[in-house]
Design a protein that fits this description.
This protein is of the alpha/beta class. The protein is built from eight helices and 16 strands. It has a six-stranded mixed β-sheet with strand order 1-2-4-3-5-6, with helices on both faces. Strands 11-10-7-14-12-13 form a six-stranded mixed β-sheet. Strands 8-9 form a two-stranded antiparallel sheet. The longest helix is centred in the C-terminal third of the chain and has 18 residues. The chain is globular, with a radius of gyration of 19 Å.
Length: 338
């Protein structure tokens, strides 16, 4: 019988509410919580700005609510653990960030999120607020290229929020922000590997089971099935498998410049990720692919799931311009590129 997962919580049923209170306090006045709903927004949003609303289920911290800030999201609609935010939360959050130029919805491609954000968009349309939607579909393990619309959104969410957030802060039209975000999404590919399960705080139970000597290549952020359950190999062997799938999917080619993101799924050490980074850079150098920017850290988690994901985004001059802008939020900060 599996042992219950230990958590430092009060009432697990109130963990999301208390977490959001703590998150707002950690922002030192740069965000505020909306009264009566699980949503946070920037404390100050200029008039005439195109708004970027992100969101999804909690339990993936710092995604999404930790990515509200400079050149990132303007607001986040938050669901319970691994559950989509309700339509009225989406509606209230979008109303709070709207400044007259429309709202871009950006979130991971999951059925519950799709349905509830769409309902929220319909409610906003009734009030004359224009909404565009872009679903992140970066997980190459979830479906073949001809079914991109069926792919899950995983750690590539962060790169998308950074590009779309910077574009929304500096472009004057919803059309232009949507254009930049779609271009970024077209060149984004990710894959994850899990070695140990995460848990649901409200139940203390694991989200899936793996034998002690097993891993799953391509597993989703909630434990959704990947492409291969196999014995644990070396870091280089695992990295080679993942990179082969990622590079072939776009495909990435000699001469490409990319943003590289290595993401901790919750309980993986920096040591392990840096060992993987070493192998990724060898592979990319051998292919003639240049890394323009890299991020190695904890961005999109599944509680204490052990494992990591690799994301590559193909860049052009415009995407580099927005990705290089400084970002500042509780969950992610970067300096402007030199």
């Amino acid at each position: 019988m599996a042992k219950p997962i230990k958590k430092i919580l009060n009432d697990p049923r109130r963990a999301v509410h208390e977490m959001l209170d703590g998150l707002v306090l950690a922002s030192d006045g740069r965000t505020r919580r909306l009264p009566g709903v699980d949503a946070i927004v920037k404390a100050e949003i200029p008039e005439g700005k195109v708004a970027l609303l992100i969101g999804g289920g909690s339990g993936h911290e710092p995604l999404f609510h930790g990515f509200i800030g400079e050149n990132m999201g303007d607001g986040a609609a938050c669901g319970q653990f691994f559950a989509a935010p309700a339509p009225h939360i989406v509606y209230e959050a979008a109303k709070a960030v709207h400044r007259g130029k429309g709202v871009l919805f950006l979130y991971g491609n999951y059925a519950g999120d799709n349905m509830n954000f769409d309902i929220g968009a319909e409610m906003l349309a009734d009030e004359g607020i224009e909404v565009r939607t872009l679903r992140v579909t970066d997980d190459v393990a979830a479906a073949p290229p001809e079914r991109m619309h069926d792919r899950r959104g995983i750690a590539g969410d962060l790169l998308m929020i950074r590009v779309a957030g910077a574009a929304a802060a500096h472009l004057g039209s919803l059309d232009e922000v949507e254009r930049v975000a779609k271009k970024a999404m077209a060149g984004l590919r990710s894959m994850g590997v899990a070695v140990l399960a995460g848990s649901i705080p409200e139940t203390g139970k694991l989200t899936f089971e793996l034998a002690d000597d097993e891993i799953e290549i391509g597993m989703g952020a909630h434990g959704e099935a990947g492409i291969s359950r196999q014995k644990l190999g070396t870091a280089d062997e695992i990295t080679d498998q993942m990179m082969e799938k990622i590079l072939a999917d776009l495909p990435f080619r000699k001469g490409d410049e990319v943003a590289l993101l290595i993401n901790n799924l919750g309980a993986t050490t920096m040591m392990e990720m840096l060992v993987v980074n070493r192998r990724i850079r060898q592979i990319l150098a051998d292919r003639g692919i240049t890394v323009h920017r890299s991020d190695v850290g904890t961005w999109v988690t599944s509680q204490e799931m052990a494992g990591l994901s690799i994301s590559l985004m193909r860049l052009d001059a415009e995407l580099k311009h927005y990705l290089d802008m400084p970002s500042r939020s509780v969950g992610y900060s970067s300096l402007e590129a030199k």
